[in-house]
Amino acid sequence: MNKQKMMEKAQRMVSGVINLPTIPAIATRVASLLDNPDVEVEEVAELILTDQVMATRVIKIVNSPLFKPMHEISSLKRALIYLGLHRIREIALTCSIIKAFEGKDGAFDIKTFWQHSFGVGTVSRIIAQRVRYPEVEKAYICGIIHDIGEVFLSNYMQKEFNKIVELIKGTSHCFVDAEALWLGTTHCEIGHCLAKKWNFPNDYCEVIALHHEPAKATLDPMLVAIVNLADLFCSVRHLDYGGREWVSFNLAEEKSWNILQNYSPKLASMDVERFCFELDERVPEIQDLVDSLFEGLAK
The domain 3-21+105-294: what is its CATH number? Predict the structure, then answer.
């Protein structure tokens, strides 16, 4: 199917939603503040504290097994110091995206969706470290946001999305193929349109648009390949949000694997079974983190 026509269809769908959520201004202001090389942690903490939901979630994320602090951190300032300024931008954006879509009834369980998203983010970070990708935190956030187009479909096109879920249930077919067939576009193009509307960086937009087609990436093929592989790993380990009952793939045949090997030849010696075992150990941590992010917060 023609990619340009699919993008145009996605643009019409996104433009047709009047009450489309926006990324809370607090995330943009945090990002702008962090652009100042002389910014103090106190300034960032004061700004984040103006959004109590974001402040609470930042503390929950820091105290999760994903970050493993030796002692519980209850102060936002201490949480920001522990994270480091380079991670605060990504955490603020993550919390803002969750807030933008929460409280809406969708076709799938939103907590299960975020388990998948944080799973892909976590695995993206691990892969990025293994291949020595220079911006590990960027890989993490791109893993988290790669499927935002699915949330749009779940919330604003429930009837069509439910049909797609039924089409692929019990099969090995993926959402993206069924979406193209049924809608004339996919969550990739829809997510790209959302990301553009929210002024995401171009390399983030490329990941969202091409995470199922890494060979087409031009801005940062390595980043797209990392997220593509992380997505596959999470699906294999059943860290996904419905539809397929089984998924399998041959790593050696994946284009993303070949892309990463070109950048990191040592990757060929990676023990894939051991890597999957490591991922199994992280799954409960990711599930607990998502549970805590939604617990006791405004719906």
Answer: 1.10.3210.10
**pTM of the full predicted structure?**
0.84
**CA–CA separation, 183 and 164 (whole Å):** 9
- DSSP E strands: which ranges in 89-165? none
Q: Rounded to whole angstroms, how far apart are CA atoms 40 and 26?
A: 17
- C-alpha dist (Å) from residue 221 to 7, 210, 260: 20, 10, 9
- Break the chain into its structural domains and give their ranges: 3-21+105-294
C-alpha 85 chain-centroid distance: 20
| The residue type at 15 | S
Q: pLDDT for 131-183, tens place per residue?
A: 899 988 889 889 999 999 998 998 888 888 888 888 777 766 778 888 998 89
| The pair of three-digit structure tokens given for residue 237, joined into one six-digit string | 């380990």
Q: Are 64 and 288 in contact (CB under 8 A)?
A: yes
Q: Which helix (H) or strand (E) holds 182?
A: helix 175-183
Take residue 84 and report the two structure tokens written for it: 């480091």
Whole-angstrom distance, CA of residue 70 vs CA of residue 105:
37
167 vs 264: CA distance, rounded Å? 38
